[in-house]
Amino acid sequence: MKQIATYILLLITTVSFAQEKDKEQLLALKKANNYVYEGNSLIQEDDFVSAEMAYRKAISEQPSTVAGIYNLGSSYIKKGNFDEALYRLQEAAESATSKAEKHKAFHNIGNVLMQNKKCKEAVEAFKSALRNDPADDETRYNLGLAKVCAEQQKQDQKDDNKDDENKDNKDNKDENKDQKENDDKKDKDEDNKDEDKKDEGDQDKKEGEDEKDDEGKPKDEKEDKGKGDEEKKDQQQPKPQPGQMSPQQMKNLLEAMNNQEQKVQEKMNAEKMKGVKIQTDKDW
């Protein structure tokens, strides 16, 4: 009996606690809805600052309230703060529990992405919105615009890549042209250097020809040959042995004797004419 009474008391306490908690949640939800309503009114009056504060109070009272998060994101869209709007709308899409709430969140996410020129991502957002509400013609129309935009951006990207490639090819051609001009200049310099060497060789050849005689032989060689012939002639003449006269000495001696004999003959002829006889001695 005592245990039954304890169980009943515990059950009553639990039910009371649950009811109390439900009351708090209902009160928080009511306050959140009131702040959302206040924010919507401020938005209509173009008071974006006060409206943002009202929506933030709604989220603080009931963090899971989709209306507060969604409306806050929408207020950022009207202010032109697309980055913050995108963040809040993505948060609303994750917190949404119904298809209607998810559809609205993804639809506006697509619009924000289009504003940011992210057309490819916008296509996926509008597709997610249509999965939750396939009958929405506005979402379907926006999806078509996003697809056209995405294709155009893809084509522009290809054109940019092609322009970059053409620019790189042009730069390579200019570089090759400069290299060719440098090579041609180098070859021309080498040709001029070879031509200078050839001119120097022709000059040396001409100077060498000037040193040749009429027979085409080098003058120095002819002079050396003449000296060699004289030396050879001297070597061919027999050298006198010790105690003997050379042929030249004998020739000179004979000439001297002939001259002496001629003088003696002339003297004798002169004596005969006088009648006086003289005796001659031989010199050799």
TrEMBL record:
Q: Which Gene3D superfamilies match?
A: Tetratricopeptide repeat domain
Region (Disordered) residue spans: 150-259
The UniProt entry, under SUPFAM superfamilies, shows: TPR-like (SSF48452)
State where composition is biased (Basic and acidic residues). Answer: 153-236
* Residue stretches in coiled coil: none
Q: Which PROSITE patterns match?
A: TPR
TPR repeats: which residues? 32-65, 66-99, 103-136
Alphabetical keyword list:
TPR repeat
Query: Which segments show compositional bias classed as Polar residues?
Result: 245-259
Q: Check the record and name the PANTHER family matching this protein.
A: PROTEIN O-MANNOSYL-TRANSFERASE TMTC2
Q: What is this protein called?
A: Tetratricopeptide repeat protein
Q: Report the source organism.
A: Thalassobellus suaedae
